[in-house]
Design goal:
The protein is built from four helices and two strands.
């Protein structure tokens, strides 16, 4: 597993706590989960911001979308858009929610 491209510290991406952390795979689905592990498309989130509240990324669609966009943007700092599209099959930076 690669380290997250989103974070250097192991803490919740949203609130910064290091209590009760879950590793979230940014792009869901079986194939994407493997790709997320390989390329570091993962983030640490506390339970509240993961799946234990309606504010969590699994229920809060705009948070989910924001994290996906930010992950694609980070990846594209040193990869091409085509590389991202070949991996994930979707461009989160150019369509509206
Ligand atoms: Zn949090
Ligand atoms: Zn998750």
């Amino acid at each position: 597993m690669s380290n997250s491209i989103m974070q250097t510290d192991k803490k919740c991406l949203i609130c910064g706590t290091n209590y009760n952390l879950h590793l979230h795979h940014i792009f869901a689905g079986h194939a994407n989960r493997k790709i997320s592990d390989k390329y570091g498309f993962t983030v640490w989130l506390c339970g509240y911001h993961h799946n234990l509240s309606k504010e969590g990324v699994h229920y809060n669609h705009s948070l989910d979308f924001a994290i996906k966009r930010s992950c694609q943007a980070k990846f594209e700092l040193n990869h091409t858009r085509k590389e991202f599209m070949d991996l994930i099959g979707k461009n989160y930076l150019e369509f509206e929610e």
